[in-house]
Write a structure and sequence with these properties.
This protein is of the alpha/beta class. The protein has a domain at about 5-335: Alpha/Beta hydrolase fold, catalytic domain (Rossmann fold, 3-Layer(aba) Sandwich), CATH 3.40.50.1820. It has 16 helices and 19 strands. The strands form 4 sheets. The protein has a 12-stranded mixed β-sheet, with helices on both faces. Strand 18 and strand 19 form a beta hairpin. It starts with a helix and ends with a strand. Belongs to the type-B carboxylesterase/lipase family. Its EC number is 3.1.1.-. This is Carboxylic ester hydrolase.
Length: about 600
Amino acid sequence: MKSYYILYIIIASTVLFKSSECAFESFDTAPIVHLSTGLVRGLKLTSAVNKSYFSFKGVPYAAPPLKHLRFTAPQPLQNWTGVWDAFDNPSACMQPLRDVGFPETYSENCLFVNVYTKVLNVTDDKQLMPVMVWFYGGEFFKGTASSYKYGPDFLLEADVVVVTVYYRLGVFGFLNMQTKSAQGNAGLKDQVAALRWVQKEIKNFGGDANRVTIFGGSSGGSCVNYLYLSPLAHGLFHRAVSQSGLALQTAPLKQSTYAAGKQLASYLRCPTASTDTIMECLKTAPADDLIKYQIAMTDTGKGEYTMVGKSAPFLPTVEKYKGEEVFLPKQPWELVRPKSSPKGVPYIIGVTSDEGLFYVYDDPDLFTNFEKDLKLYLPSHIQKTASQRQIKELTTKVKEFYFGNQSVSYETIQAYIDLHTDRLFLYPIILGVRALRHQADIYLFQFAYKGAFKIIRKHYVLHNLTGAAHGGELGYLFYRNHGMPAHNNLSAYPEDLHVLSNMVKLWTNFAKYGKPTPVYDDQLKVKWKPVESNKTNFLKIDIDLQMVDNDLNGDRIAFWDSLYSLVLSENTSSENSAMKNTGAFPYSLIATGNQCWAL
């Protein structure tokens, strides 16, 4: 008989609540915390597992980025008088209006954190709890840290403090006009400001500033990787987790957003003769207009970042110093420390087994268009450097490898899913692991459980698509009953609770000890080993945990290595030298035979 351990026992034996806000106990028990900038009052709530905790939602960590502060790095927060009531989720940062299934408003005044803790007024530093700081995903132009989407209920049971961070998005967070008033990467600098706030204030919430774990999913995972690489964030955290996203994937990076900023100004009918006139326009335009025209100017071709359909016009960029701190001074690959460096911050990196399921849309022309435009799904680096003859040859190889002589259809849907998984997530992430494994303990995972704690799309049900899609692990870390019906009846899913309990323990062990399995125990029954120097061994997270000593999807990774190797082998030495020296793509990490070129 399987044991589902403490978390499952708690859930199964208690009355569950139907709201991610759970039960408010009393204003008489509302806690007040003294911060360096003033007093903040939260709420005492009862979680989905019927345990009390303290919630502080909408605590400011930087000055409102309004008027002349639009597009700039976050500025210090001013002290306030009286008591700041941190009762409700704040407005999410400006983004396209979406039907998210829960209450949500949008504002430029959005630099807030939500903080959740079980204990306050800790007087003994030895009793301080590890801190887990979450950065949401959403392709850098949408997303929220709302408790409706990222409820802390499960993680809090493992005695950690949970912080979720709101940061600027789209043009507000990533306009780079190569000027002091828009130097670039404001959204990533927001995250640095939030981590500085954590270092300064988290002890007041029972958190240990010397045990801070940053974690994020999708583009939030890329944010974590950017923070991991950026000199600006060094020393602000002590472990890192990237779920289905890395900055070392080259997609979430643009060489410049100057042209996009100029185009946006032209949509607003502003003069574009100089940077000064463009900036005056963009700084004074109504925020809603910036969002409206940002949507209008979105790419209509095959987007590099979103893979299918559209590509965000404003993404992280390499900066030049124009008067404010530089977050990204070089290409991400160029910020990887040399092999001779001391070992750094331990890092969990991973993917779901069927990331590409996210790109199966309810579109009758989906497969026809895909097959017709298959060459556009080759990596942009290959499209930019390969000859037309090579592109045709490589397109044929991709079709044959994944589909053989069959057409793309629901009959071959798993091949379609695998191609999208490999092209957009798995292969770039494996390259990232190859780059980083010499400088830190890298724990690689594949989340493969096909469970009930996930977002359900109608066409998934119609076509019996049950894989672990992009974001499929989130329901096993966060309480999100507004988007996941099964979270309204947790005790009805004992196997899912078993997987959830394992995930929570692995992630919080890592936050506490820097190792996900510091000792063997009767719950996890596995020792998660870091990747080795010559292979990408990984932990498979399914109904049970399995440490796999072989490469993660080694045959598929070898295929993508072979595509790049083919281009490199046929190019002239000068062409290859130019390609490898761009810094934009890690050609040095392409495996040729059993070797990788030295980084």
